[in-house]
Design brief:
about 260 residues, alpha/beta, 5-stranded mixed sheet, 10 helices, about 40% helix, Solute-binding_3/MltF_N
Length: about 260
C-alpha cells in the first residue's frame, strides 16, 4: 500500500512538473521585419504584420508565451540553427533546398511570384532573349532571386538585402523589372504611394521549382514535437475563425487558398 501511495505521489508530481514546464515554456519567433504586409517594424518600433499575427495566434492556441525578434533575411536560417529563436515565420517558401537545413510545418498560405515593371514599360515577353540586357532585380537569398538567375541569365541581375530597397530602385528608375512575392507586390502597387509608379505584369509565377509547396513555418530539423504542435494549432485557428479574422485584416482574398 505504501508503495502505491509513493507511486501515486510521484506520478502527480511528474504531471505537475510537466504542466508547469508547458506553462512556463517561452518560444522565440524569428521574422524579417522588412516585408510588409507580412512582417514589418512600425513607427513605434514594434514588429507586426500577417506573419506575426499568425505566429502569435498559434502561440495562444498552444498556450505558450512567445517573443518576436527581427532578423535580416540572409541570416534567418542560420539564426534558427544557432538557436537564436525557435521558429521562423517570415513568408518562407517551402523548397527542397531549404528542407536540407530546416523542417517545415504545413503551409499557412499559398505562394506565387510576379513580375513588376514601371507603368508603360511595354514588356510583354518573358524569355531570356526578350529581356537580354535588361536590369532585373530581386531580394537576395530568395526564390525570386533564384528564378531570375535561372530564367534571365543574359540580363543584368541586381540583388538587394531587403524588398524595400529593390522597390526604391524601381521607383528611381534603376530597374527595368523586378520579380517579387505576389501578395506584397500587389499590396505595394495598390496601397503605397511609391508603388503607383509600377504594375504587375505577365501571369503569376507558380512553378513549384521556385515557389515550392506553399509558405511554411520553419523549425529545426530535430524539433518534430514543436512542428506537430504548430500544425495542430494551425488547423485549430483555421477551424475556429481566428485565421480568417487575421487574413481579412490584411487581404481581400483568402491567402490560404488564394480564392
Amino acid at each position: 500500500m505504501r508503495e502505491k501511495i509513493i507511486a501515486l505521489v510521484l506520478a502527480c508530481a511528474a504531471a505537475f512538473s510537466a504542466t508547469s514546464a508547458t506553462a512556463a515554456e517561452k518560444l522565440k519567433i524569428g521574422t524579417e521585419g522588412a516585408y510588409p504586409p507580412f512582417n514589418f517594424v512600425d513607427s513605434a518600433g514594434k514588429i507586426g504584420g500577417f506573419d506575426v499575427d499568425i505566429g502569435l495566434a498559434l502561440c495562444a492556441k498552444m498556450q505558450v508565451e512567445c517573443e518576436v525578434v527581427a532578423q535580416d533575411w540572409d541570416g534567418i536560417i542560420p539564426g534558427l540553427i544557432a538557436r537564436k529563436y525557435d521558429l521562423i515565420i517570415a513568408s518562407m517558401f517551402i523548397t527542397e533546398e531549404r528542407k536540407k537545413q530546416v523542417a517545415f510545418t504545413d503551409p499557412y498560405y499559398l505562394a506565387a511570384m510576379t513580375h513588376v515593371a514601371p507603368k508603360g514599360a511595354g514588356i510583354t515577353a518573358f524569355t531570356n532573349e526578350a529581356l537580354k540586357g535588361k536590369v532585373i532585380g530581386a531580394q537576395s537569398g530568395t526564390t525570386q532571386a533564384d528564378f531570375i538567375a535561372a530564367t534571365y541569365p543574359d540580363a543584368e541581375i541586381k540583388l538587394y538585402p531587403t524588398q524595400d530597397e529593390a522597390n526604391l530602385d524601381m521607383v528611381n528608375g534603376r530597374l527595368d523589372m523586378q520579380v517579387g512575392d505576389m501578395l506584397p507586390m500587389l499590396d505595394w502597387v495598390n496601397k503605397n504611394d511609391d508603388g503607383k509608379c509600377c504594375e504587375l505584369i505577365g501571369t503569376p509565377i507558380t512553378d513549384p521549382k521556385f515557389v515550392g509547396e506553399g509558405v511554411g513555418i520553419a523549425v529545426r530539423q530535430d524539433d518534430s514535437d514543436l512542428r506537430e504542435k504548430l500544425n495542430k494549432a494551425l488547423a485549430d485557428i483555421r477551424a475556429d475563425g481566428t485565421y480568417k479574422a487575421i487574413n481579412d485584416k490584411y487581404f481581400t482574398i483568402d491567402v490560404y487558398t488564394m480564392q
